């Protein structure tokens, strides 16, 4: 069905019902919610109807139907651990401005993410906070779907740009490369010059590897990036054989310090090392990345802590300010990086004298 035909059907339905809902129109016309929203935007621009939350009304109804409350969609890969605080931060900021937040969770599944986006956009959100299932290292797989979203978007923990998308997007992300630098600088301050690295296969690893490479070059340290997987299989704990394999690599390389992403494998590594008679941190210094459960490890873990709560707050406030800007007044696109902190605990001791500038939190 061509756009002019859809427009005629939409206007006919509006005359009959007085109010339209995006989800119902999409089902009636057999098209996506994004297509319907684009049609409504074109008809609104032509003065034939007025868009409101969730759909559209006739031009004579706008005064009675329009609400000052903003509705903001937030779509994230999961709602636990890392993103729990991101969501809480966005929720707190939305509440401060009297806005409503609508959550969608993709489970790091691109197909599921498309469905969640359709549903969230279909209810008529004014803007979108988005952390896609694809990470920056997978930008080539993104395609152009992001550019089809017809409401303002602020990306969270993603920094997609040209040529993978057509236009620049506001984004707020953690400077994970800086976090990796913090960890290695701390280990160097304790006298370590050979360091092992083990990163989970997550989107964060893309930025961590950049920071690790830069830090190793600037600090003049030797490190190895292990290929041994320390990921748990479902509900089962990490197999001892995998932990032993990584410890064997460290011994072979002469590394008595490690950076492990994330908390759970770092905690299990400490337990396994102690079972094998190693002392923490004397024989093996450990830094975890994320700081979700690091403080509860058998030996409390020194950890790099991304500013997750602040990230959600900052992204939500940026979007709300953009939505509330005066009509016709352009707003600058912003790329914001937030710095993580290093929280020093027992797994690798205190900072040496004179190293107070390493941002320990």
Automatic annotation (TrEMBL):
Keyword DNA-binding: yes
Record GO terms (molecular function): DNA-binding transcription factor activity; transcription cis-regulatory region binding
Keyword rRNA processing included in the entry's annotation: no
HTH deoR-type domain location: 3-58
SUPFAM superfamilies: Periplasmic binding protein-like I, Winged helix' DNA-binding domain
Protein keywords: DNA-binding, Transcription, Transcription regulation
Gene3D superfamilies, alphabetized: 3.40.50.2300, Winged helix-like DNA-binding domain superfamily/Winged helix DNA-binding domain
Stored InterPro entries: DeoR_HTH (IPR001034), LacI/GalR-like_sensor (IPR046335), Peripla_BP_I (IPR028082), Tscrpt_reg_HTH_DeoR_CS (IPR018356), WH-like_DNA-bd_sf (IPR036388), WH_DNA-bd_sf (IPR036390)
Protein's name according to its UniProt entry: DeoR family transcriptional regulator
Source organism of the structure: Kribbella qitaiheensis
